[in-house]
Amino acid sequence: MTLARFFQRRGPKREQSNDDLPDLWSKCPNCGAQIYNKELEQALRVCPKCAFHHRLPVKKRIEALTDAGSFELTSGKVRSVDALKFTDTESYPSRLERTKKKTGRENAIMAGRATLGGLRIQLIVMDFEYSGGSMGSAEGEEITRAVEIATREKRAVVLVATSGGARMQEGALSLMQMAKTTFALEELGMEKMPYITVLTDPTTGGVAASFAAIGDVIVGEPGALVGFAGQRVIQQTIKQNLPEGFQRTEFLEEHGMIDMVLDRREHRQMLADLISTMTNQPAVEVKAIEVEVTPPPAKGGLFGRRG
Ligand SMILES: [Zn+2]
Fold first, then answer.
1. Cα of 46 to ligand 1 centre, how many Å?
2. Percent of the chain with pLDDT over 90
3. 112, 117, 132, 199: which could form a disulfide with 203 (CB 3.0–4.6 Å)?
4. How far is the CA of 85 from the centre of ligand 1 (A)?
5. What residues sit around ligand 1, an ion, with C-beta below 5 angstroms?
C-alpha cells in the first residue's frame, strides 16, 4: 500500500464535539444501560449503573477540579507553525485551522491559576477533542509556561493528561517537548511544590513517556488506557502475548506504575487532601459531588477486567 493510500483510507475525522449532550438519554457503552443525560452530567459523566467513565470535556473537568469561579486562564496564545511543510490528505495549517474552528482554541491545552479547597494551584488540562490531544510544540510550550508560573508563584500543579502521543506533523519538534516540559517540572520540584498528574483515557505515546509519568503522585481514572506503544506493536516486537488488561490503569496500579486508580467523582477531595498534606497547609473542605450509591462495577465489561 502506498503511503498516500494509507492516509486516504483513514480520511478526515468527524467534526462533532462532545462538549454538549443534546439528546435526553445516552446509552452506556459498557453496561448498555439507558442513562438520563442530566444524571450523567451530575455524576461527571460516570455511568451511575456501572461506573464506566465517559470522556469528560475540558471545561467540565476544570469546573470539577477548581473552586467555583476561581479559574483564571493563562494559556491560549501559543500556536504551532508548519516547520516541516507537512501534508497528508490535508496540509497541516489547514488541519490546525479546522481544529481551531471546532474547539475555539489555538492548541490542545487549557491552563490557568485556580484554587481548590482554598489552596493555590495551577491546573493544566489536555483536550482530546483538539487533534487527539496530541503534543506539538505549542502544547509543550503551554505546559512549560504554566509550570513556570506555578514555580514563580509557588502553586501546586495538577495536570490532567489525555493524548494520542506526539504530533506526527511536527516530527522531532514534537519529541523535544518531552525534554522541555520535564526540565520545567524539575524546577518546580526544586521549589518543593507538588506535581500531581491525573491520567485519563487514553494517555499514550510521548505524553505517557514524559510529563504524565513523572508526577509526585499519579492518579489514574478507572479503565483508562495508559501506555507508550500500542499493544499490537509490542506483541509483534516481543513475539509474546500480553496479559489481559495490559496498559489499563488497574494493571499499572497493581504493578506499581501509578499510585492509585480513583473514581473521577472523588478526585476533587483527593487532590485537595494531597496538596494540603504535601504543602503543609490546611484545606477548606471542598464541596463534594453528590453521588447516588453506585453498585460495584460489572465484571467482563468493555475492557474485560473491571471490578
Ligand atoms: Zn454503564
1. 8
2. 81
3. 199
4. 44
5. 28, 30-31, 47, 49-50, 52
**What phi, psi does 237 have (nearest 5°)?**
-75, -50
pLDDT tens for residues 138-181?
A: 999 999 999 999 999 999 999 999 999 999 999 999 999 999 99
CA of 54 to the centre of ligand 1 (A): 9
Q: Find the 5 Cα to ligand 1 centroid distance in Å.
A: 38
Distance CA 76, CA 92 (A): 19
At 304 the pLDDT is: 41
- pLDDT for position 239: 94
Domains in the chain, please, with CATH?
56-279 (3.90.226.10)
Q: What is the pLDDT of residue 303?
A: 45
Q: Give which of 242, 197, 246 is closest to 220, Cα–Cα.
A: 197
The model's pLDDT over 59-110, given as tens digits with 9 standing for 90+, comes to: 999 999 999 999 999 999 999 999 999 999 999 999 999 999 999 999 999 9
**Which has more confidence, 161 or 12?**
161
CA of 10 to the centre of ligand 1 (A): 30
Burial label for 23, CB within 10 Å (0-12, 13-18, 19+), is: exposed
CB 108 within 8 A of CB 141: no
- What are residue 204's DSSP bridge partners? 227
Query: Cis before residue 202, ω within 30 degrees of 0?
Result: yes
In 239-266, which ranges are continuous DSSP H helix?
249-254
CA of residue 162 to ligand 1 center, whole Å: 21
Distance between CA atoms of residues 307 and 303, nearest Å: 10
Ligand 1 centroid from CA 286, angstroms: 27
Å from CA of 269 to ligand 1 middle: 24
Which pTM was predicted?
A: 0.86
User: What separation in Å is there between the alpha carbon of 227 and the centre of ligand 1?
Assistant: 24
